[in-house]
Design goal:
The complex is a heterodimer of chains A (about 675) and B (about 160).
Chain A lengths: L6 H64 L15 H7 L17 H12 L6 H16 L4 E4 L7 E4 L6 H11 L8 E3 L10 H14 L4 E3 L7 H7 L1 H8 L4 H14 L3 E4 L3 E3 L10 H6 L38 H12 L5 H5 L18 H12 L1 E2 L5 E3 L7 E3 L1 H10 L4 E4 L8 E4 L4 E4 L13 E6 L5 E6 L10 H22 L1 H11 L6 E2 L1 H12 L5 H8 L1 E2 L5 E2 L7 E3 L8 H9 L1 H11 L6 E3 H15 L5 H11 L6 E3 H7 L2 E3 L5
Parallel strand pairs in A: 1-5, 2-3, 3-4, 6-10, 7-9, 10-12
Antiparallel strand pairs in A: 2-13, 5-6, 8-9, 11-12, 13-14, 15-17, 16-17, 18-21, 19-20
Helix pairs in contact in A: 1-11, 1-15, 1-20, 2-4, 3-6, 4-6, 4-9, 8-9, 16-17, 20-21, 21-22
Chain B lengths: L3 H25 L7 E3 L3 H7 L6 H11 L7 E3 H13 L8 H11 L7 E2 H10 L6 H11 E2 L4 E2 L1 H12 L1
Antiparallel strand pairs in B: 1-2, 3-5, 4-5
Helix pairs in contact in B: 1-4, 5-8
Chain lengths: ~675, ~160
Amino acid sequence: MGCGTSVTGSRAKKSERAIKAAILIQRWYRCYMARLEMRRQYALSIFQSIEYAEEQAQLQLSSFFTFMLDHFTHLNVTDTGSDVQLLEYERMIEVPDSYRGPRLSFPLTVADTNSLLHAFKDQQHLHARYVLQLLHETKKLLKQMPNIIHLSTSYSKEITICGDLHGKLDDLLLIFYKNGLPSEENPYLFNGDFVDRGENSTEILIILFAFLLVYPNHLHLNRGNHEDHIVNLRYGFTKEVMKKYRSHGKKILNLLQDVYSWLPLATVIDSKVLIVHGGISDTTDLDFLNLFKRNKMKSVLRPPRQDIAVKGMTRPSSSSSHRRQYTSDLLDVGKHMCLLHDGVNSGPLLEARYLESSVCMPSMPSELTAKEWKQVVDILWSDPKNQNGCTPNKVRGGGCYFGPDVTARLLKRYNLKMLIRSHECKQEGYEISHDGQVITIFSASNYYEDGSNRGAYLKLNPDLIPRFVQYQVSKCTRKRTLHQRVSVVEWAALKSLREKLYSRRSELIAAFRQYDPNYTGRISATEWASAMESVLHLDLPWRTLRSRLVQLAPDGSVEYLSCFNDLEIEPAIKEVQPALVETLYRYRTDLEIIFNIIDKDHSGLISIEEFRQTWKLFNSHLKIDIDDESIDKLARSIDFNKDGNIDFNEFLEAFHVVNKFENK
Amino acid sequence: SLPKKERDSQTQTIIADIQKKITDAFEVFDHECNKTVDVREIGTIIRSLGCCPSESELHDLLAEVEEEEPTGYIRLEKFLPMMTKVLMERRYRPIPEDILLRAFEVLDENKCGHLTKEELVKYMTEEGEPFTQEEMEEMLSAAVDPETNTVRYRDYITMMVVDEN
């Protein structure tokens, strides 16, 4: 403090110091927050990369699964036109007196929807007979609807539009709590992706369909890309149904296939607002979309046959200079199917004797044309991008990336004001893009991990001005700081990533060793990043992630084996080689799907012979390098009680990665 | 010291390393995968690379990399050389703990070891380069000691530093 100067002078000086101090603190704080933001961004991009890579991987296997499905005819019960009558379900399936859950009576009323909500809050299940009846009635109703539904806001003040729910019942209940239940005064539209990933996909479908039956003119549903039985195989809904409905699960899934295919593809409000699940492309033709028979599209992964000569399977490749330039193309799946059935390179496939039916051409949705298929896929799978143009959506393997120019053109062509879509998880639950012409609405909060994102719904009034409401389901009541929230998400993302690394351990080590011929255990950061990308194809910022995945030597080089340090796989089988364990771990989701397909009586058991044959099929399809003898040995050793059967749930449980230092 | 040739080669390696680091950070926000990022993310990218510019310094840096006609996007092509220079010259170094502590002490007029919530809010939202309401709320959520309802800045700083590492 100055002395001898005037009071104002010293006060001014003091004030100047205070301002400098304030700026310093602000500077520091903003840097800190920026680094947190960076961590959050890459945590989310880890989740996204893994998610999209898995979608990609599924496409590779889709032809295989389709082949499997075609040859297990019990799964192929198609609707030949003679509908089971509603009452026949009552004859076929008995509901015991001991059943304490809701008992539905058709036609449904508000009493039924209330009892369903009540029951699901209490974590009860709806009995299979009611589920089947509900699906039956839903299908009947949906069949009467056009492909594109036209709504008007003139009868009510506002319509509420919700995005992806993905089986998160808590989010749906929270929406109903905040916004009221659907009714004539409170109309809703749910924009697809009701199922998969979350644990209550079944309950969400039941609730939505029940409200649909009670208020058919005020509850609206659009089909999403997850309303697809083949996608469900991988992303958890099939598993959920089979688990909750052991005896009738297959029937439910069959009926659901039809229900999905009858869901409307799009909705238009006041002739001004277009609502679809994914997006559009530069070839989207709404008139065309409205006219064709939409139920021909059972699954996006069963495309129309191609008459192109077989070229063989395309594998995703990645050059480090272009992100997301995978080469797989949904249309190639058609070629693969020809490959499988023409007998080219498929000797062992055709000879697997345990298959029930003889190999024949699958009953393809023969009337679905390539154009129809593309129009639907574009609507369900596309994503907006910020720059002009329309490019194939190579990351997802279907649909397009559409730019503001594509949007503008389509809106102009049909005299529309805006496009509302979902399909992508957004941190704030919603996002406005293309200069306000595109809105993304996403309603599953904490989608990747507790704290990863908010959910939102939007309310549209007759002026067609959207109002957004955000929320987040939370396990804890205390408000967490941003740092705590980011840490949780980051930790989960890294855990996910480390498991992925572990599942490709051998390949990774081989790639690292290419740079380290003398086995020093160290390579440079650049070499490490290269090796990681060449094996994993996840296109992540490896250098930024480096310090969180591996240990670094003092000179900055990477000790590449250290990323495997904390993890180990706990196999129940001792005599199996580590390489085989790793491979089984990597394909465990796929194996599970296959097991579920094979297990006709849902007993949880398959015979050793079936296991062996399935593995060989799988092996030859993916060209995995595991010799038959190892598989035989494995099959024998998994049969713990030596009765010729394998309990595959136990088997799969055994192959999970355990963090050595994690508290169980 | 090393002969010139070796020194040059070392420098080349350092530069290459720095450029890779910058590119990686840039790519985290390059959502379209076309070597551009939204201009609003530049601050985050620069700060995540270890620099600690003030808002006005950030503004100047941005002016160097923006297009003649601002498009809302910044291209890697322009960002990379600018950022490489910044890192090579070690500009906008982060603030050491002790300097930060002294800054808080300046604001603590009564030298009592803590600031009241109101004092902190006043300084942060009215002086210097003011915080937005969101920034202020976020800082308060971590900085205010719930028991005393004051900002015990020494503890706060320690906690933040530990958190980072």
